[in-house]
Amino acid sequence: MQALVLEEKNRLSLRDFPVEETLGPRDVRIKLKTVGICGSDVHYYTHGAIGPFVVREPMILGHEASGVIEEVGSDVTELAVGDRVCMEPGIPEPASRAARLGLYNLDPAVRFWATPPIHGVLRPSVVHPADFTFKLPDNVSFAAGAMVEPLAVGVHGATKAQVKPGDVAIVIGAGPIGLVTVLAALAAGCARVIVSDVDDTKLAIAEKLGAVTAVNVARTPLVEAVKAETAGWGADIVFECSGNARAAAAVFEPLCPGGKVVFIGIPLEPIPYDVAGGQIKEVRVEHVFRYAHVYPRCVGMLASGAIDVSSLITRTFPFSASVEAFEYAATSPAGEVKIQIEMPD
Ligand SMILES: [Zn+2]
């Protein structure tokens, strides 16, 4: 079966790549329909590694996916052939200590698509546990279904922040994860979200998502903009989505006393952290790693219209052009948020 294979750093090919998979009693076989390109996929392509995860042999990319069930295991009763679904790409050991504690995303043994040595899903079909496969209502498209994976990061962040109705939040960084965090913060009840970036095209997209104030920090200091928006008090929550060391080191400055910070963007290097700046405001700091228990919530909000991700899907390539899609994504083109690949019928 044809798959998009990362042969090694900077070398992709669309080629026959058989993957041996057996359908267990609690598994389903899914025909892939839409797969989003994630920053991590691009990073493996251009760098061959992310932190300790190194691509040592050819690996299929892709982990943001939706599809149609084409076969169900003997013990699966809640899903049926023909169901439209999206899939959670990280599978823990079901009986691990982390999983039993409800922290399955932190299970050291988690197997996550397109994270070496686990193959991703830019291929015709995949076998996946039914427990990590979620039905899409008819009014949620395959494209939106493939956005549930990044959206889940924002929803997990908003959940960790314990957003209260009327909160003012800051989202630092208007990339795909920043923008889904904006959507999650607004859906969770924020009265206003102040989004900072240095790219006006990304900020323009952020402004269209709802009650958003866009701040280009190349021109306006974030603290000044936040003071103006909050009568000098500061924001209730900062979602740090840039991973940028300087931005991340200054997270406490625009925050109100008793505020909260959620670190979502992953800095590539260790960063300095202003402990005293957090102490004088008694800031509560949270960190998120991927997500847990939020897929049904994301699907529910897409179905009800509480969250609309359509404006974030800025380009779609056919699977036959997926190498070109990655080459294009690797140039970080201005104005693009989420690039997706549509699988053939
Ligand atoms: Zn992703």
TrEMBL record:
Cofactor(s) of this protein: Zn(2+)
Gene3D superfamilies, A to Z: Medium-chain alcohol dehydrogenases, catalytic domain, NAD(P)-binding Rossmann-like Domain
Enoyl reductase (ER) domain mapped to chain residues: 9-332
Record keywords: Metal-binding, Oxidoreductase, Zinc
Key word Metal-binding present: yes
Claim: Metal-binding is one of the keywords in the record: yes
A molecular-function term among this protein's GO annotations: zinc ion binding
Domain of life: Bacteria
Similarity-based family: Belongs to the zinc-containing alcohol dehydrogenase family.
PANTHER family given in the database record: SORBITOL DEHYDROGENASE
Protein name as annotated: D-xylulose reductase
